[in-house]
Amino acid sequence: MNRRDFLIGTGAVGLAALAGSAPRGGRAARATAPSARPPRRLLVVFAAGGWDTCYALDPKQPPLVDVPAGAVQQFAGLDVFTDASRPQVTGFFERHAGVTAIVRGITTDGIFHNECQRRIITGKRDDAQPDVTAMVAHDLGNDLPVPYLVLGDVAFTDPYTVSTARVGTTNQIVDLLGDPTDALATRETALLDRYAAASADRARATRGATGYNRRRVDDFAAAVARAGRLGQLRSRLGARGETQSLDAQIALALDALQQDLSHAVMMTTRLFWDTHSDNYLQADAHEATFGPLTGLVDQLIARPGRAAGSKMIDDTVVAVVSELSRTPLLGGGGKGHWPVTAALVIGGGVRGGQVFGATTDGAGGLPIDLATGRPSDAGLQPMYAHFIAGLLALCGADPGVHLANTPVFDAFIA
Prior knowledge:
34% of the residues lie in helices and 14% in strands. By secondary structure, the protein is α/β, with parallel strands linked by helices.
């Protein structure tokens, strides 16, 4: 689908069907309470498939857990499992342990990919719940051209779809943006923009004058306008059919944030993490992830932030998550799905160089005090909802608006 088809299709069909349509993608009422924390931008890197946390983030020892070659190494206050065969992992923590927190023992309460992917980034089981990146973008950056930019394969946007732009699995967005060097295409774009504006005006004059229908028309017009601003990144998006590597996604994400096009970005490693009989491939996946992560944090430290004299690292949060871990012991030469995982939280407002949460010697979950992150018999087993509530709070959004009555795991917030 090119831009002409998109605008004509959405203009002639989408707007004509306003009355009685389901509110998917419509603007939700904003009711975020003021936060004492400064608003921070959010980058999420999703390792879809289920990483083996004993390869780095949650060191264990036999006989209760089968582990690869290596040993525990200390970086600031982080104990990380490393080996000479995984130098990128070591390199990341050597450079950036001070701004990085490890969060252990997050329970996803399931072992199926689709369900757990939703839970670990939305904080709910609800199919209509937006992910944490969408929530932060909507609450804190909804006045930007593209509040939520999705560069990866996993994202949940309802009810904030109108605030979202997706690159697409085959980079379809380049067709929608068009070629800015093509004079004919530029004239065509101007015509299509006028057509979209006229379609919106016509809808307002008929059935979209007030209420929900008016909001839907306004959403359509705003989305078309945002597409024009997204064209600023056109030269970095490559060609149709290309798959964006993590390095390429990082470059796009940083530019989108720095140019104030977006407030939050979802990325994916595009690596094979769902290892079973070939669990040894976890080493390759860790290497191919931590190298780009090092470059990401390097850039956040090098690029200027919003405030005078600040750096992007000061007002940006990076969360690296996976929906599952792997079973403690090998079975049949491999490892299956395990419902207790770990995450990295990096950047602005993070209590870096510390570990929060814990697991047993056999990689099971432990109750903790959510305020300190330390094991406590009187505490709670940290669930996906507690973790997402903590990320929302860290970014300056109100967890109560999206995850009402959910205890906030905020130990990793400075």
